[in-house]
């Protein structure tokens, strides 16, 4: 029960990203600062953790091996993930962005053929190209149907251009996040823990955030004190606390596939937590019945996808590659 509670707490803290980003947008703050400040503020927190664990030297040495790869995949995994996600809040409420973001489950499955996994065969250990999990994708269609239902109501209130500007950036982020993170895990090759890898990717993505900051100063001016404070909260809650809670939960049940599936499925609650947060703190109207049906389909689809995926893993005597986690 404790891992489930930790997973739910992680989903709650992750949901603050969507609520506060929308809050900053509606109060006049720019998505440019919402994106860049979050990663700038994450550095001291992560640096403190890595230094305390005496792992900084190892991280620097590994980053020096392939600096170009670190810059490229960190730009994709963090930059093309979070900047579009913040941009989408200009056109969509946080709960809708959170719901559409669950498309990353489908995106992650579609990216499987781009990677290799180590498996045991009758003749020994070999590497095989990953395969798209067909059964998992069938349940992913439930998620897709839920996203479509949520977007239908929203589409009736905005122009076609505004609707697509609220959807396409999230779809881009959904592919960029698992692609960048998986590539970085291949490069790290199991030599870094989660805090080292996240710190390394944050540092390597810093050229983008500094460029965005300069662009922000010249176009929208400096961020307000309120936006700075809220960005700091996002960095602490989502970038540090939620990540620690989620990885703690998954680590507690890593040897039990059914329990691991349950913990991962708790992340579907991000949509509901984001919705409740916006209703309470931003006074948005409750979604329509159609949107509620969409939310429920997303949650059900994520739970079924997680269970069917791990059920498949237990049937194959393989050394599974460590996958990227749902949190960010």
Automatic annotation (TrEMBL):
It comes from the Bacteria. InterPro entries: EmrE. Keywords: Membrane, Transmembrane, Transmembrane helix. It holds the Pfam family EmrE. The chain crosses the membrane at residues 31-50, 70-90, 96-116, 137-157, 163-180, 201-222, 228-247, 268-286, 292-316. This is Membrane protein. It comes from Robertmurraya siralis.
């Amino acid at each position: 029960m404790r891992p489930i509670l930790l997973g739910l707490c992680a989903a709650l803290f992750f949901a603050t990203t969507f609520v506060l980003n929308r809050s900053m947008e509606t109060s006049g703050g720019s998505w440019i600062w919402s994106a860049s400040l979050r990663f700038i503020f994450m550095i001291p927190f992560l640096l403190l953790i890595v230094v305390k664990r005496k792992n900084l030297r190892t991280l620097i040495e590994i980053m020096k091996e392939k600096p170009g790869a670190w810059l490229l995949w960190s730009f994709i995994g963090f930059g093309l993930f979070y900047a579009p996600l913040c941009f989408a809040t200009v056109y969509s409420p946080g709960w809708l962005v959170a719901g559409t973001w669950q498309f990353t489950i489908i995106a992650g499955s579609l990216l499987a053929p781009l990677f290799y996994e180590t498996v045991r065969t009758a003749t020994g250990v070999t590497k095989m190209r990953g395969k798209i999990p067909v059964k998992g994708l069938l349940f992913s269609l439930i998620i897709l149907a839920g996203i479509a239902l949520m977007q239908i109501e929203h589409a009736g209130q905005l122009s076609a251009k505004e609707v697509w500007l609220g959807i396409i950036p999230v779809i881009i982020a959904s592919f960029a996040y698992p692609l960048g993170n998986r590539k970085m895990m291949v490069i790290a090759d199991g030599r870094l823990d989660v805090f080292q890898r996240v710190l390394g990717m944050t540092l390597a993505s810093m050229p983008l955030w500094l460029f965005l900051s300069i662009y922000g100063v010249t176009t929208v001016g400096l961020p307000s004190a309120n936006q700075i404070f809220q960005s700091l909260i996002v960095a602490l809650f989502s970038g540090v606390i939620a990540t620690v809670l989620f990885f703690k939960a998954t680590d507690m049940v890593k040897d039990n596939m059914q329990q691991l599936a349950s913990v991962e499925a708790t992340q579907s609650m991000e949509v509901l937590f984001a919705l409740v947060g916006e209703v309470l703190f931003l006074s948005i109207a409750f979604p329509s019945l159609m949107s509620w049906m969409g939310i429920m389909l997303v949650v059900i689809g994520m739970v079924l996808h997680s269970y069917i995926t791990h059920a498949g893993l237990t049937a194959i005597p393989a050394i599974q590659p460590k996958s990227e986690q749902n949190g960010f």
